[in-house]
């Protein structure tokens, strides 16, 4: 599993690149971001792939810590899909918390600073 997670991280890097390159290239050519429905999809996908990448990096660091510091080795074998399913579900949930906040920003499509972010929504729920 320790050898497969860097491969999965490379795949999410490629997916993140395929989302961000057209996003920035469109702005470079036309001097404004994508129109609204497409921009929301690009913003959601970019956030999803970034969350996937960071979650996989977290899993890799946990596996390396357990293997090096605890001197234990996990052979997940045919149960890799369960770990990938947990990573995918958690990333989709994190990206969907702010599903209404994606849209045009100044130069690209992302979580728009013009709208309220999910961090503020969660903070308001916690305070109230």
What would your notes on this structure say?
By secondary structure, this protein is mainly alpha-helical. The protein has one domain (4-127): Rhodopsin 7-helix transmembrane proteins (Rhopdopsin 7-helix transmembrane proteins, Up-down Bundle), CATH 1.20.1070.10. It has helices at residues 4-30, 36-68, 80-96, 118-127; strands at 102-104, 109-111. Strands 1-2 form a two-stranded antiparallel ribbon. Helix 1 packs antiparallel against helix 2 (36-68) and helix 2 (36-68) crosses helix 3. The longest helix has 33 residues, at 36-68. It starts with a helix and ends with a helix. The mean pLDDT is 78. The chain crosses the membrane at residues 7-30, 50-69, 81-98.
Write a concise synopsis of the structure shown:
With 128 residues, this protein is mostly helical. Helix content is 68%, strand content 5%.
The CATH superfamily is Rhodopsin 7-helix transmembrane proteins
CATH architecture: Up-down Bundle
Class based on secondary structure composition and strand pairing = mainly alpha
Spatial extent as radius of gyration: 18 Å
Low-confidence stretches: none
Strand order of the largest sheet: 1-2
CATH topology description:
Rhopdopsin 7-helix transmembrane proteins
Q: What is the percentage of strand-forming residues?
A: under 5%
Distance between the termini: 43 Å
Shape: elongated
Quick one: how many beta strands? 2
CATH class call:
Mainly Alpha
Number of domains: 1
> What helical percentage do the residues reach?
55-70%
Element pattern in H and E: HHHEEH
**For the report, how would you describe the main beta sheet?**
2 strands, antiparallel
Number of helices: 4
Mean pLDDT: 78
């Amino acid at each position: 599993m320790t050898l497969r997670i860097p491969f999965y991280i490379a795949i999410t890097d490629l997916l993140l690149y395929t989302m961000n390159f057209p996003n920035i290239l469109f702005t470079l050519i036309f001097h404004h971001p994508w129109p609204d429905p497409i921009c929301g999809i690009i913003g959601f996908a970019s956030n999803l792939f970034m969350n996937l990448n960071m979650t996989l990096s977290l899993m890799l660091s946990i596996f390396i810590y357990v293997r090096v510091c605890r001197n234990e080795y996990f052979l997940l074998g045919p149960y890799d899909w369960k770990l990938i399913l947990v990573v995918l579900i958690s990333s989709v949930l994190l990206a969907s918390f702010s599903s209404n906040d994606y849209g045009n920003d100044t130069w690209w499509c992302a979580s728009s600073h013009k709208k309220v972010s999910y961090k503020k929504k969660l903070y308001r729920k916690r305070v109230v």
